[in-house]
């Protein structure tokens, strides 16, 4: 794994001591550089000298001039090659950047870099991504810029709702990695999480290691990046995102994916699976092969319930796995959709709705055991919801997760 500087950007709401606390937390978690931008902070809102004593400081000119005292404290000074009047920075500190307003061809991108630069300047090129297939153009732009300026100087980034996996692929040849600390605020759409990238840098064997990842919506809680081999990317997409085009564009770059809500059924159809829902993709040369290792999780949960008759709340991808295992084992399985819920519910149940999905107002339990197949904070929120509605939750999400992940790992080892 090549040396890469991990950069976090100071949020606009943090000033004074709070800004220093943010930098200290970032340093503790593995960040290398803290960035401050003129569009996010007024000149006197932060103490650049104090920040630079915590970790190296990157100061970036965005629409407003850089204050002199910011520049004096900086490790690097970000100036836009097209918008800045002068690329002035102390010797050895220039970061020359270009932020395109739309996707460019590689030839168009290279023309933006015709301005002479000092030989010690770093180079950062950023483009918005309209469609996932823009990745191949960005990779060629990156190759050409590396050939022109040198491997240690160049960073190429994509931005937008489908940019996160592109940034992960580009990162193996980038000198800088701009990352999100987590939470609601990010400095740019498509940023990866600091914790995920630190984990990758610590554990990945080399830049040629095939990537893995998890595809889903609202997945910051996922433990998959923690237990599977690196590099393993958390690809959080909006529910309406073109996930089919995303996986097609990533076929040359990833050995496999874990698939979670809400994409299990869509990707089953896209890959031509005979299953109604899948949770695993494995690269087979020029195509994806799909599997549903959720059956292993479903088997573990049904065994823990130990009942001959089980009802399921929800009819999504996880329910398809429960159906398959119940048929194998001769169990009676009843699926209850939202519109069919009639209170009170008794007996043994499995709750499959994600915690971001509000249950029906009429839902009530009476003496019911309810298996929760989410884990972590989402699982605890679902469990609290069950208690509030009169049920007894059984936290079986970890059992489901471990069982299906073990089988996923075996399948990914067979990728070609």
Reconstruct the topology from this structure.
Elements: E1 5-9, H1 16-29, E2 33-37, H2 48-54, E3 57-60, H3 68-73, E4 76-80, E5 94-99, H4 106-111, E6 122-128, H5 134-149, E7 154-159, H6 164-170, E8 176-180, E9 192-193, H7 194-203, E10 211-216, H8 224-227, E11 232-236, H9 243-250, E12 254-259, H10 264-270, E13 280-284, E14 287-291, H11 294-305, E15 309-313, H12 317-329, E16 332-336, E17 348-351, E18 369-372, H13 376-388, E19 392-395, H14 397-412
Parallel strand pairs: 1-2, 1-8, 2-3, 3-4, 4-5, 5-6, 6-7, 8-9, 10-11, 10-12, 15-16, 15-17, 17-18, 18-19
Antiparallel strand pairs: 12-13, 13-14
Describe the 3D structure.
The protein has 416 residues and is α/β, with parallel strands linked by helices. It has two domains: 5-199, TIM Barrel; 295-401, Rossmann fold (3-Layer(aba) Sandwich), CATH 3.40.50. It has 14 helices and 19 strands. It has helices at 16-29, 48-54, 68-73, 106-111, 134-149, 164-170, 194-203, 224-227, 243-250, 264-270, 294-305, 317-329, 376-388, 397-412; strands at residues 5-9, 33-37, 57-60, 76-80, 94-99, 122-128, 154-159, 176-180, 192-193, 211-216, 232-236, 254-259, 280-284, 287-291, 309-313, 332-336, 348-351, 369-372, 392-395. The strands form three sheets. A nine-stranded parallel sheet has the order 7-6-5-4-3-2-1-8-9. A five-stranded mixed sheet has the order 11-10-12-13-14, sandwiched between helices. Strand 5 (94-99), helix 4 (106-111) and strand 6 (122-128) form a beta-alpha-beta unit. Helix 11 (294-305) packs across helix 12 (317-329) and helix 11 (294-305) runs antiparallel to helix 14 (397-412). The protein is elongated and about 75 Å long. The chain starts with a strand and ends with a helix. The model has no long low-confidence stretch (mean pLDDT 94).
């Amino acid at each position: 794994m090549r040396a890469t500087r991990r950069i976090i950007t100071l949020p606009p709401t943090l000033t004074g001591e709070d800004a220093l606390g943010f930098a200290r937390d970032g340093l503790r978690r593995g960040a290398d550089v803290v960035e401050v931008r003129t569009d996010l902070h007024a000149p006197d809102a932060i103490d650049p000298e104090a920040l630079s004593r915590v970790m190296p400081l990157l100061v970036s000119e965005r629409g407003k001039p850089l204050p002199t005292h910011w520049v004096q404290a900086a490790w690097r000074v970000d100036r836009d090659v097209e918008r800045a009047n002068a690329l002035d920075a102390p010797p050895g500190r220039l970061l020359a950047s270009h932020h395109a307003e739309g996707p460019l061809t590689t030839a168009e991108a290279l023309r933006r870099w015709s301005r002479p630069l000092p030989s010690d300047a770093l180079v950062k090129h950023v483009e918005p991504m309209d469609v996932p297939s823009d990745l191949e153009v960005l990779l060629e732009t990156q190759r050409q810029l590396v050939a022109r300026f040198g491997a240690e100087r160049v960073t190429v980034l994509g931005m937008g709702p489908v940019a996160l996996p592109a940034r992960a692929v580009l990162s193996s040849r980038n000198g800088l990695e701009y990352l999100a600390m987590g939470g609601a605020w990010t400095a740019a759409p498509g940023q990866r999480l600091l914790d995920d990238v630190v984990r990758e840098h610590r554990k990945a064997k080399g830049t040629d290691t095939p990537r893995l990842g998890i595809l889903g919506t609202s997945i910051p809680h996922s433990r998959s990046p923690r237990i599977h081999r690196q590099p393993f990317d958390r690809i959080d997409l909006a529910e309406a995102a073109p996930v089919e085009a995303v996986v097609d564009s990533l076929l040359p770059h990833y050995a496999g994916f874990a698939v979670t809500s809400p994409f299990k059924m869509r990707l089953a159809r896209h890959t031509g699976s005979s299953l109604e829902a899948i949770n695993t993709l494995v690269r087979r040369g020029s195509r994806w092969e799909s599997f549903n290792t959720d059956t292993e999780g479903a088997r573990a949960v049904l065994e823990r319930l130990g009942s001959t008759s089980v009802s399921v709340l929800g009819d999504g991808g996880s329910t398809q796995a429960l159906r398959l295992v119940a048929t194998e084992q001769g169990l009676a399985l009843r699926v209850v959709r939202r519109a069919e819920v009639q209170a009170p519910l008794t007996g043994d149940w499995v709750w499959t709705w994600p915690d971001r999905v509000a249950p029906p107002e009429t839902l009530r339990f009476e003496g019911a055991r309810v298996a929760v197949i989410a884990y972590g904070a989402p699982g605890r929120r679902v469990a609290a919801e069950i208690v509030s509605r009169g049920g007894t939750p059984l936290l079986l999400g970890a059992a489901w997760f471990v069982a299906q992940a073990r089988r996923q790992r075996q399948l990914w080892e067979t990728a070609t």
